[in-house]
Each structure stands twice: as C-alpha cells, then as structure tokens.
Design brief:
Pfam families: Trp_halogenase. InterPro entries: FAD/NAD-bd_sf, Flavin-dep_Halogenase_NPB, Flavin_halogenase, Trp_halogen. This is Tryptophan 7-halogenase. This protein has 15 helices and 21 strands. The protein is α+β, with helices and mostly antiparallel strands. Among the domains are: 7-49 and 159-231 and 315-363, FAD/NAD(P)-binding domain; 241-312, no CATH class. Strand 14 (256-262) and strand 15 (265-271) form a beta hairpin. Helix 1 (15-28) packs parallel to helix 6 (160-173), helix 1 (15-28) packs parallel to helix 9 and helix 9 packs antiparallel against helix 10 (365-391). The structure holds flavin-adenine dinucleotide. The site of flavin-adenine dinucleotide has 38 residues, from helix 1, strand 2, strand 13 and helix 9.
Length: 497
C-alpha cells in the first residue's frame, strides 16, 4: 500500500517554491509539515514581474490585504499588454483582460463587429473594451462584478524578489520551515525508485514523503535524478535567450505591459513603482548578444540602472511533470517565454491542481496520470497561443520573421486559425487559460479578421446595429471620464507611484 504523505519537501525558494509553500501551508498545513530548502549561493532567476488576473485568486486564498501587497512588492496595476510592431511595423494593438462589447446568448460580440465592418461601418473593436479605454489613458479604479461587460479585470506588475520575500514571511508565519543549503545528492528507495531524502553539501539530510521540485531550469530532482526527459519546442518558438536590465522611472505609470517586436525577438517594458523592468527576448540564431544589447539599451525609456544580464532558456516542457513522488513546479516543469506572462500563472495552476489531487493517503498512479494529462494540455494551449503571435504576422523585414511566418504550426492551432478566419468561430479547450476574448484580440490585432459572421448577428437591421454599437461604445466610455489615473489610485491605496 502507498505510504501516506505527512512531510512535503519543497526544493527551491524562487517564486515557484514560495508560492507552493504559502498555498500548501494555507490549504492543508494542518495535515502535512512543510520544509523548503533554498541555496543563497545559487539564488533565484530574479525576473518574472508581470502577471495575469488569476493571481487575484492566490491572494484571496492566502487572505492577503491588497494595499499591503501593493506596498510590499512595489506593484502596479496591469489591465492589458500593448503589442507594438507585431502584425506589421508601426501597428499596435492591446490584448486586454477585458471583453469587448456585450455578448448575446450563443453569439459573441465579435460577430456583430464583423457584420458591422463588412457592412462598411467605421467601428474599432477595441472601442468597446473598458480595459482598453482605461489602459490607453493610464486610468484605473476597482470595478468588479459578475457581469464581465462592466467589470475591469486586472493583474499586477511586481518586483519578483520582493514578491518572493513577501511569500516567504507569509509561509514562515504559517509554520513552513526554511533550510538554507545546497543540495548535493538524493537518496532513492531501491524498490520503488521514490526519493526518500536529500543530502546537503554540509552533510545534513532532509527526508520527506512528497518532493516538490522548484529548483528552476536545472530541474534538480525531476531531470537530474528522475531523468524524465524534456520535450523541446524550439522549432516553433526559436527565441532562446533573454537580456534583462532595470531602468529609472519618471513617466506616468502605464497600466499595461509593453511588448515591442524587434528584428529578431521582442522587448518587454514593465512599470513598477520604483523602476521599470526591461528585457529583450531573442533568438541567438538570428541575433548576437552585442546586437541584442544595442537594441535593448537603445530602446529604454529611462537610464539603465545596471549592466544587462543574459538569461539563456530552452522552450519546452518536462515529459512528465509529476513522476513517482516528485512534482515539478515552475521552471523545472518547463518554460514558455514571457510574452503573455503565463509562467507565474502556470505555477499557481500546478499547485492548485496538486492540491485538488493531493495524495494524502498515498500516491496513486491514476492521480499522477490525470495530473500529467491536465498539465500537458495546459502547457500546449499556452504554447499555441504564443506561437500565434509570431506566426500571424505580415512582417518580412528579417529572416527571423520570414521563418516564423512560413513555418508549419501545430495542427490544433492551424485548424483554430483557419476556422476563425472563415467563420469567426473559435474552438475552446476547457484547460486553455486564454478564453475567446483573448484569442479574438490577438487574432484580429495581428490582422486575421473573420470573413463571415454568425447568423444570430443578422438580427438587427443595419441602422439599428449602427445605433446599438454607438450607444454601447458611449456606455463603455462613460465610467472612464471620471476615473483617476493609476498613479492617483496607487497613492491613495498605499503605493508610492
Ligand atoms: P528560480 O527563481 O530559478 O528558483 C530556483 C530555486 O531553486 C532557487 O531558490 C535556488 O536557490 C534553488 N536551487 C536550485 N538548485 C538548488 C540546489 N542544488 N540546492 C538548493 N537549492 C537549489 N513569468 C511570468 O509570469 N511573468 C513574467 O513577466 C515573466 N518574465 C520572465 C522573463 C524571463 C527572461 C524569464 C527567463 C522568465 C520569466 N518569467 C515570467 C518566468 C518566471 O521568472 C519564473 O516562472 C519564476 O520566477 C519562477 O522561477 P522558479 O521559482 O521556478 O525558479
């Protein structure tokens, strides 16, 4: 019979390790003891500053006070990502956390928009999206409700080191034991192959029943010891390096991440209260490090506050994210570049999945298989969404963009794009983080516009449709006029911007 899980050992104290510690301690801390091992000598990756709205659920489960959170992590509000130069040089669009217009039963708003456009009306899809209308003016107020048409979903930009420290304090208050030291080796049960204990360089031993590998891209347990293998997605997503540098802040705080496409990759700009985070994600096959540094440093808004730091990465995923008694969470489980700020969400989702399926009475192979099935689909749907950004482009100014435009994409993605292009219909995988409004914005933002609309959108006559759209756009604009700038909101809420 499988042994009960009484002690959980978390390997690594980056965002993955401390988020796992905090959530597990909060949810089942009465049933298991938790020890987290981290090495000051190795440190953390120290990037990962943009999130998506589900981070709110983490804060809600942990019972975190938002004003304290904003202060302690020097966070700002994120309503969207603004994509510049992706569809074509000089073009911009926003992928917001909102949804445009108002859906009728069975018929999404973009069908009405498509019909209006095909009838020759001058309508901008984004004018019906509250997140966009606030983002472009730098405004923010808390508007939340059950009706997605009138709510303003948001996430945060935060300082990743401060976030880790914040979660560490939280976890230690709930009884998580932190052990500092470098793990040198792992002992395994000769019969089952399970990990039984870890040996630190100074000889200390840490035993456990379930090990959560949050050791970063080295995958200390899941790869070095269990050797599950890695599925490489570099043929679809050729970027394999990032260069990061903080810069000084002086401008009004934008409530969105900037993603600016360049000749062989793209640059992020993330506004925090005390600095901007910047980086360039690029393909080393298409761009040298010197060229990357020139592009990045030549496109900063404020003065660089440090030397640029190179971070190599390999896009893909561990072939089994849960193997024996080891669950890989964070960079050890795989990596997808930060274009849609999904890594921290994937950490959250992995921990929530583990808690749903927690093997309290002992590990069952069927539970492990289910965990791995869900994780695989989730990673693949995010991968496809990111590939879409690179593939759906009209750019042909460099070999990088020409290669990505021409490459064959995964079948599921190719079918999804084709169906949307022909009919405006989108297939939706239930495990996909990104719902219809996200796909519609990126597809249309990059120039893929449906050739037809749903028959239900034929309901109103042309004049009636035009009047309805005018009224809806005016209603969406209305709350924005009296809304404060994000900087005013942050000050009132305890932040310093
Ligand atoms: P790490 O931060 O690398 O932590 C690993 C931990 O393991 C450390 O504490 C280390 O000390 C410990 N460790 C390793 N080996 C040993 C050992 N032998 N003994 C003891 N301890 C050990 N995500 C987002 O959601 N949004 C973003 O905007 C975003 N931007 C990114 C930009 C870039 C360029 C990159 C590369 C990633 C980005 N990410 C982003 C991803 C995000 O940074 C990570 O998902 C997140 O930081 C989690 O990292 P981690 O905890 O898995 O690993």
């Amino acid at each position: 019979m499988a042994a009960a899980i009484k002690k959980v050992v978390i390997v690594g104290g980056g965002t993955a390790g401390w988020m796992a510690a905090a959530l597990i301690a909060r949810v089942i801390g009465e049933q298991v003891s938790i020890e987290l091992i981290e090495s000051d000598e190795i440190g953390i990756i120290g990037v990962g500053e943009a999130t998506i709205p589900p981070i709110q659920h983490v804060n809600a489960v942990l019972g975190i006070d938002e004003a304290e959170f904003l202060r302690e992590t020097k966070a700002t509000i994120k309503l969207a990502i603004r994509f510049d130069n992706w569809g074509a040089i000089g073009e911009s669009y926003y992928h917001t956390f909102g949804s445009a217009g108002r859906n009728l039963a069975f018929c999404s708003f973009h069908h009405f928009w498509t019909r209006a456009r095909r009838a020759g009306m001058d309508v901008d899809y984004w004018d019906f999206d509250l997140n966009y209308l606030c983002a472009r003016e730098g405004k923010f107020a808390k508007i939340q409700g059950d009706d997605p048409t009138w709510s303003l979903p948001y996430a945060y930009h935060f300082d990743s080191s401060l976030y880790g420290r914040y979660l560490r304090r939280y976890s230690e208050r709930l009884g998580v034991v932190r052990t500092e030291g470098l793990i040198d080796n792992a002992q395994r049960d000769p019969e089952t192959g399970d990990i039984t204990s870890l040996t630190l360089r100074d000889g200390r031993q840490v035993a456990g029943d379930l090990f959560i590998d949050c050791s970063g891209s080295r995958g200390l347990l899941i790869q070095r010891h269990l050797n599950v293998g890695y599925e490489d997605w570099g043929h679809w997503l050729p970027c394999d390096r990032a260069m990061a540098v903080p810069s000084a802040r002086f401008e009004q705080t934008a409530p969105y991440t900037r993603s600016i496409a360049h000749e062989a990759g793209w640059q992020w700009r993330i506004p925090l209260q005390h600095r901007n985070g910047n980086g360039l994600v690029y393909s080393s096959r298409h761009c040298s490090d010197d060229r990357a540094a020139a592009i990045l440093l030549g496109n900063l808004d404020g003065e660089a506050l440090d030397e640029p730091r190179i971070i190599p990465f390999r896009t893909g995923r561990a072939r089994r994210q849960w193997d024996r008694n080891v669950v890989a969470v964070g960079l050890s489980s795989g990596f997808l570049e930060p274009l849609e700020s999904t890594s921290i969400y994937l950490i959250q989702s992995a921990i929530v999945r583990l808690l749903h399926l927690f093997p309290q009475g002992g590990i069952d192979d069927r539970v492990v298989a289910e965990y791995n099935r869900q994780s695989q689909i989730e990673y693949e749907t995010v991968r496809d969404f990111i590939i879409l950004h690179y593939h759906a482009t009209r750019r042909d100014d460099s070999a990088f963009w020409r290669d990505l435009r021409a490459m064959p994409v995964p079948d599921r993605l190719a079918a999804k794009i084709d169906l949307f292009r022909r009919s405006g219909i989108l297939t939706q995988d239930p495990l996909d983080i990104f719902m219809e409004p996200s796909w519609v914005q990126v597809l249309m933002g990059q120039g893929i516009v449906p050739a037809a609309h749903h028959p239900l959108a034929d309901g109103p006559g042309d004049d009636e449709l035009a009047a309805q759209l005018r009224q809806l756009a005016a209603m969406k604009r209305e709350p924005v006029a009296n809304m404060p700038l994000q900087d005013t909101f942050l000050k009132a809420f305890g932040g310093q911007a």
